[in-house]
Amino acid sequence: MLTIDVLDGLESLLNKSLLRQYDGPNAEPRFGMLETIHEYAREWLADGGMAEATKKRHAVYFARMAEQAAAEFLADREVFWAPKLHAEHDNLRAALNWSLGTDNPELAVQLISGLADFWYYEGFHVEGYEWVRRTLPKLDEVPPAL
After folding, report:
1. Which domain holds residue 27?
2. Pair 41, 59 in one domain
3. Confidence (pLDDT) at 1
4. CA atoms within 13 A on the CB side of 71
């Protein structure tokens, strides 16, 4: 559990030049960190035994985002969701990779179904096909309702 407010923590990291802030799609603030800091954080999570749990939370978050995007993408909200999904594409790919490499292909199916319209309308046909191709062998592990 965090002992400080998230916004206070972000401000502290920004003031120490450990994060940089830039404008994302739809004028949302985005934050990035230096690769050396990113590597340190990865090692810290791994050493503390928290890496897999963190990756799972990351994948769950982006699966929910993809589901929300799918529900709104074709309902006059493409203007909002397309730039947001473009900005998060690397995170979405990381979530897909992680979910396919674990015993959790349900998250991969949620991500794929949530991103289908985005991939189609934004020209990522081949990428979408490749994710589906990689997921098909794992469908026996996914509940039929999903």
Report:
1. 7-49
2. no
3. 54
4. 7
